[in-house]
Design brief:
The complex is a heterodimer of chains A (320) and B (261).
Chain A (H helix, E strand, L loop, with lengths): L2 E5 L2 E2 L2 E2 L1 H13 L1 E7 L7 H6 L4 E5 L3 H4 L3 H14 L3 E5 L2 H13 L4 E9 L6 E6 L4 E7 L5 E4 L14 E4 L12 E7 L13 E5 L9 H11 L2 E4 L1 H5 L20 E5 L5 H4 L7 E6 L12 E4 L2 H16 L1
Parallel strand pairs in A: 1-4, 1-6, 4-5, 5-11, 6-10, 7-10, 13-14, 13-15, 15-16, 16-17
Antiparallel strand pairs in A: 2-3, 7-8, 8-9
Helix pairs in contact in A: 4-5, 6-9
Chain B lengths: L2 E6 L2 E3 L20 E3 L1 H16 L3 E8 L5 H10 L3 E5 L9 H15 L3 E5 L10 H9 L3 E11 L2 E7 L3 E8 L2 E5 L11 H7 L4 E4 L18 E8 L7 E4 L4 H11 L4
Parallel strand pairs in B: 1-4, 1-6, 4-5, 5-11, 6-10, 7-10
Antiparallel strand pairs in B: 2-3, 7-8, 8-9
Helix pairs in contact in B: 2-5, 3-4
Classes of the chains: A alpha/beta (320), B alpha/beta (261).
The complex binds flavin-adenine dinucleotide and adenosine monophosphate (AMP).
C-alpha cells in the first residue's frame, strides 16, 4: 500500500490534535508515515503509533528552533525522497502552509491549502475546501507531482488505530538557505488553561458590543461554564480588549466547533469567514437586523449584559 | 545606494460582494467589483514607511492580473508608491499559486530588488503561500507574517506572532517580507496623492517580456484542478426570540435540547 507522509505538529514531543486528525485522513489514502522534527521528536512516536502511523521518521537539530521555516522544508524534502509517498499532509497552520508551499515547489508538485476533508479518488486524493468566506464548497486535486495538502483543524475525528510506529532516524543535510532567517528571540504564549481556539468543541466570542476589556470577564465566565475557548471579533481586538491570538475571522483563526456563541458581534463577512462552518450557531445581539442572525440556529435579541450572565447562571445550575 | 522595494499587490473581487465562480471554475471577476486587496494595503503602507526611513528608496508596486488590475496599481500609487508594473497576458487566466509565484518572481528579478513586501494573504484565495514561494524562487530569506517590521543597515527585523509564541526575526537583504493586518493602519490617499498618481509611470509586461512560456502558466497547466464548486446551502432559518427577561434561560433550554449542557 502507498505511504502517505504526515508532518507532525508537536510541542516538545506532545502531539497536537490536528496531527492526529491528519492520521485519520491519511489512512483513507494509504499507510501513514509521520515526520517529527525538533526537540522531543522521538517522544511523539507512542501517540502517533496509537493513531495509525506505521513509521515515525525523526530528526532533531538546533536549526529547527533557531531559523525560520526552511530547515523544516529541507527535512520534509529529505523524507519525501526517502519514502516516495503518494501524498504529503501538513496541518494548516500559518507555518504549516509555508512549509508545504516551499516543499511543493521544490518537488515540482501542486499544493492545496486549508482542506476541510480528504478522500481517495481515481486521480489521487480529492480535497474539499470551503471558499469565499465559506459560501462555496469546492472539490480539488493536485494535478502535477506528489499532492501536497494542508488540512484545517477539526476536519476529521481522531481515531485509535494501533500500528507499528517504528521510529527511524531521518537523515537531513541542511541547505545553504536554511540559516537565512534567524529567530533571535521567542516569547511563548501564556496558557490560559482554556481549550485551544481552533481545536475547541465550543467557542464563545465577544465583539464590539462587549464594550470594554473588563467586560470580557462576562464572556470568559460563560466560556468556562461550558468548557469552551474564548474568541473575539476584530473590532474587539483592535480596541485592545482581547488578544489578537483569539481573533476569529479572515485574518484571525478559522474555527469550526460543534457550537459557536457570538455575543455583541454583527456578523461581517470577514468574521463569518472564520466561523460559518460551525455546526450549531447561537447569537446574542440587541439589534434584530444584525446579519449574524441570518446564520443562527438560535438567536436572542437582547442586551448581552442581561442575557449572558443569566445564561451562565442557568448552565451552572443545570450542571449542578 | 538606493533601496529598491517591490510591493506585490493583488486585484481581488470585493469580499462584501456576492462572489461566484465562472463556468471554468475560476473566480468570476465580472459580476463583482474589484479592488486592491485590503490586506495588500498594509504591505504598501509598510513599504512606504520603510522608504521614508531610508536615505534613498524607491517603491515599485507589482501586480499580475487582468486589465482592470490597473485600478489596484493606481490606488497604491496614490498612497505614495513611485511606480508600477502590470503583468498582463491572456495566457495567465486561471494560473494557480505556484504559477503566479513564477510570474511574480521573474518580474521582481527583472525589476531589480533589495526588498519584496507582500500581504499576509489575498482576500480571495486566502492561501497565504505566495510570499514563501517567492522567497524559495528568488533564493532569499523569508521574513513573513510580521506585525512589526523595520529595515536598517541592510538588515530586516520583525516580529512574527505565531500560535505558540511571538518570535523576533532577522535577515540580511535582499529578502521577502510579508506583513499582517496588525502591522499598522494603511494611509488614505490624499487628493494630492491621487493627482500625482496619474502622472506616475505604469509599465506593462507580458509573458514574453519575462521569458515565460504559455505552457508554464494558465488554467490548463495549473498544478491543481478544481473539479466542482457548489454553493453552500443557506442555513435553515433558526429560532429567534426577543429577550423579555428570560432570554438567557431560553437559550440555556435550547443548548440543553441540543445536548450541550
Ligand atoms: C481585510 C479585512 C480583514 C478582516 N478580518 C476580520 C477578522 O478576522 N475577524 C473579524 O471579526 N473581523 C474582521 N474584519 C472586520 C469586519 O469587517 C468587522 O468590522 C468586524 O467583524 C466587526 O466586529 P463586531 O461585529 O464586533 O463589531 P460591530 O460590527 O460594530 O458590531 C457590534 C454588534 O454588537 C451589538 N451590540 C452592541 N452592544 C450590545 C449589547 N449591549 N448587547 C448585545 N449586542 C450589542 C450591535 O448591535 C452590533 O451588531 C476584517 C476587515 C477587513 C477589511
Ligand atoms: N496576482 C498577484 N499579483 C501580485 N501579488 C500577488 C498576487 N497573488 C498574490 N500576491 C501577493 O501574495 C500575497 C499572498 O497571496 P496568497 O498566497 O494568494 O494568499 C498577497 O497578499 C500579495 O502580496
Amino acid at each position: 500500500m502507498a505511504e502517505v507522509l504526515v508532518y507532525v505538529d508537536h510541542v516538545d514531543g506532545a502531539v497536537r490534535k490536528p496531527t492526529l486528525e491528519l492520521l485519520t485522513l491519511a489512512r483513507r489514502i494509504g499507510e501513514p508515515v509521520a515526520v517529527a522534527l525538533g526537540n522531543g521528536a522521538a517522544d511523539t512516536a507512542a501517540a502517533l503509533a496509537e493513531h495509525g502511523a506505521v513509521k515515525v521518521l525523526t530528526h532533531d537539530a538546533s536549526e529547527y528552533a533557531e531559523y525560520l521555516v526552511v530547515p523544516k522544508v529541507d527535512a520534509l524534502q529529505a523524507a519525501v525522497e526517502a519514502v516516495s509517498p503518494a501524498a504529503v499532509l501538513v496541518p494548516s497552520s500559518a507555518e504549516g502552509k509555508e512549509i508545504a508551499a516551499r516543499l511543493a515547489l521544490r518537488i515540482g508538485s501542486g499544493i492545496i491549502t486549508d482542506a476541510v476533508d480528504l478522500e481517495a479518488g481515481e486521480e489521487g486524493p480529492v480535497a474539499t475546501q470551503s471558499v469565499f468566506a465559506a459560501s462555496f464548497t469546492t472539490k480539488s486535486r493536485v494535478s502535477k507531482g506528489t499532492p501536497v495538502i494542508t488540512v484545517k483543524p477539526n476536519s476529521a475525528a481522531v481515531e485509535a488505530a494501533p500500528a507499528a510506529g517504528a521510529v527511524e532516524a531521518l537523515s537531513v543535510s541542511f541547505s545553504e538557505k536554511a540559516t537565512g532567517t534567524k529567530i533571535t528571540g521567542r516569547t511563548a504564549r501564556e496558557s490560559t488553561g482554556r481549550p485551544e481556539l481552533t481545536e475547541a468543541a465550543i467557542v464563545v466570542s465577544g465583539g464590539r458590543g462587549v464594550n470594554g476589556a473588563e467586560n470580557f470577564s462576562i464572556i470568559e465566565a460563560l466560556a468556562d461554564s461550558l468548557g469552551a475557548a474564548v474568541g473575539a471579533s476584530r473590532a474587539a481586538v483592535d480596541a485592545g480588549w482581547y488578544p489578537h491570538t483569539n481573533q476569529v475571522g479572515q485574518t484571525g483563526k478559522s474555527v469550526s466547533p460543534q457550537l459557536y456563541i457570538a455575543n455583541g458581534i454583527s456578523g461581517a463577512i470577514q468574521h463569518r469567514a472564520g466561523m460559518q462552518t460551525s455546526k450549531t450557531i447561537v447569537a446574542v445581539n440587541k439589534d434584530p437586523e444584525a446579519p449574524i442572525f441570518d446564520l443562527v440556529d438560535y438567536g436572542v435579541v437582547g442586551d448581552l449584559f442581561d442575557v449572558v450572565p443569566q445564561l451562565t447562571e442557568e448552565i451552572k445550575t443545570r450542571k449542578g | 545606494m538606493s533601496l529598491r522595494i517591490v510591493v506585490t499587490v493583488k486585484y481581488v473581487p470585493d469580499a462584501t460582494g456576492d462572489r461566484h465562480f465562472a463556468d471554468d471554475l475560476t473566480v468570476d471577476r465580472d459580476d463583482v467589483d474589484g479592488l486592491l486587496s485590503e490586506l495588500d494595503e498594509y504591505a504598501v503602507e509598510q513599504a512606504l514607511q520603510i522608504a521614508e526611513d531610508a536615505d534613498d528608496a524607491e517603491v515599485t508596486v507589482l501586480t499580475v492580473g487582468p486589465e482592470d488590475a490597473k485600478d489596484a496599481l493606481r490606488k497604491a500609487l496614490s498612497m505614495g508608491a513611485d511606480k508600477a508594473i502590470h503583468v498582463e497576458d491572456d495566457d495567465l487566466h486561471g494560473t494557480d499559486a505556484i504559477g503566479t509565484s513564477l510570474v511574480l518572481a521573474k518580474a521582481i528579478e527583472k525589476a531589480g530588488f533589495d526588498l519584496v513586501v507582500s500581504g499576509m494573504a489575498s482576500t480571495d484565495g486566502t492561501m497565504g503561500v505566495v510570499p514563501a514561494l517567492l522567497a524559495e524562487r528568488l533564493g532569499v530569506p523569508q521574513v513573513t507574517l510580521l506585525s512589526e517590521v523595520s529595515v536598517e543597515d541592510g538588515t530586516v527585523k520583525g516580529r512574527r506572532d505565531g500560535d505558540a509564541a511571538s518570535e523576533q526575526l532577522e535577515a540580511s537583504l535582499p529578502a521577502v517580507v510579508s506583513v499582517t493586518d496588525q502591522s499598522g493602519e494603511a494611509r488614505y490617499p490624499s487628493f494630492k496623492g491621487i493627482m500625482a498618481a496619474k502622472k506616475k509611470p505604469v509599465e506593462s509586461w507580458d509573458l514574453s517580456d519575462l521569458d515565460i512560456d504559455a505552457d508554464e502558466v494558465g488554467l490548463d497547466n495549473a498544478w491543481t484542478a478544481v473539479d466542482a464548486a457548489t454553493e453552500r446551502p443557506a442555513r435553515t432559518a433558526g429560532t429567534i426570540v426577543k429577550d423579555e427577561g428570560e432570554g438567557g434561560k431560553q437559550l440555556a433550554e435550547f443548548l440543553a435540547s441540543q445536548k450541550f449542557i
